[in-house]
């Protein structure tokens, strides 16, 4: 089983950006955490980050036939990107939405998610553990298929 974890804009700034919200651990720490979680769950994982909407769309399209599921933190594009929504729907792979914080308890402009309607589940507000919950959820959902 092979999962693709997609991270959107500014997540590469983890550890520097708003540490009171996002914590003091870096993006490299997050990647390591995801790789360790996947190893423990017995799944293969690839992690991709981009600040560019089109790059994320390209990565989603090229996941077709290569990956069994997607874990998506589209970051700010969560709240704006019909293109990412359409790409997720187009490839038809199982998607789980994740966020470090819980956008629904933050500013009103974060309350809309264009990823959610394309996702089987959302894990938000658990910091790095949101990714662990998503990976375990997807691996269980895929192995019971
Ligand atoms: C985020 C929440 C988004 O609202 C924000 O734009 C981000 C990060 C999170 O993981 O908590 O960049 O997706």
Key words describing this protein structure:
binds 1,3,4-trihydroxy-5-OXO-cyclohexanecarboxylic acid; alpha/beta; five-stranded parallel β-sheet; 145 residues; globular; Rossmann fold
Structure description:
The protein is an alpha/beta fold and 145 residues long. It has one domain (2-143): Dehydroquinase, class II (Rossmann fold, 3-Layer(aba) Sandwich). The protein is 37% helix and 18% strand. The protein has helices at 19-22, 27-41, 53-62, 82-91, 129-143, and strands spanning 2-7, 44-49, 69-73, 95-99, 121-124. Strands 2-1-3-4-5 form a five-stranded parallel β-sheet, sandwiched between helices. The protein is globular. The mean pLDDT is 97. Bound molecules: 1,3,4-trihydroxy-5-OXO-cyclohexanecarboxylic acid. The site of 1,3,4-trihydroxy-5-OXO-cyclohexanecarboxylic acid has 10 residues, from loops.
């Amino acid at each position: 089983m092979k999962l693709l974890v997609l991270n959107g804009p500014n997540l590469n700034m983890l550890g520097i950006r708003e540490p009171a919200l996002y914590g003091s651990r870096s993006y490299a720490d997050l990647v390591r955490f995801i790789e360790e979680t996947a190893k423990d769950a017995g799944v293969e994982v690839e992690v991709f980050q981009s600040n560019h909407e089109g790059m994320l769309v390209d990565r989603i399209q090229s996941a077709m036939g290569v990956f069994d599921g997607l874990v998506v933190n589209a970051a700010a594009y969560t709240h704006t990107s019909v293109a990412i929504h359409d790409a997720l729907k187009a490839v038809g792979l199982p998607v789980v939405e994740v966020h470090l914080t819980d956008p629904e308890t933050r500013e009103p402009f974060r309350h809309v998610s264009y990823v959610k309607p394309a996702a089987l589940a959302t894990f938000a507000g658990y910091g790095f553990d949101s990714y662990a919950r998503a990976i375990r959820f997807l691996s269980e959902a895929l192995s019971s298929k």
